[in-house]
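Write out the 3D structure for:
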Amino acid sequence: MMNLFFMTIDLTELSMTNVFYVLLVATLLGGFLSIVYAYTHRKTVYDRSFNTTLLLLPLVISIIIMLVANNIARAFSLAGVFTLVRFRTAIADSRDITYILSAVGVGLAASLGYFGYAIMITIFISTVLVVLNYFKLDRHHASHAKLRIIIPENLNYANVFDDVFTKYVISSQLQKVKTTDFGTMFELTYVIKMKDSINQKAFLDELRVRNGNLSITLTTDFVSLTSE
């Protein structure tokens, strides 16, 4: 059996043995990608069910490809089915798309009988992902942040925080202003780039002095930065 993992088999005529080998290889390689994902995310909070998705995705892809292979009618029927399905699960981390596309590629290679290529692709992609994680090349520095400050309506927000920003941030941009609490408060939203190794508590304390100790929110998550 091990020899089949390093050779190409002909799947133009399906047999129970060939299908079993395809399903086995796709599942094993999907499991390997799942382990790599768990390893590279071991220090972060992530959706545990995504591991199961990565394990099963190459298997599902390989089954679909084998069923529609060399049959245009089946392919169009499958496309019609997928147009009726809506996937509403949002990808919280855009890096997860890499794992999804990798799993799809592995499933395609396995379903075509290219077991050696599927193994090589899995190992190569996994090595790249582990190296990126080890050197933290896929992590953005927490220098950019979204800052929300509540101020009373009688406070002129135009330049009230300029000297504090000069001390603690490299750049700041007032992104949005809106009234709250029936117009008695303003909510200011800034996008800022903080200086390296700043004391965030001291930064927030000085802002609290200016806004009368009202609510302040500092968010460094990239998803929050790019959303309202």
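The chain has a mean pLDDT of 83.
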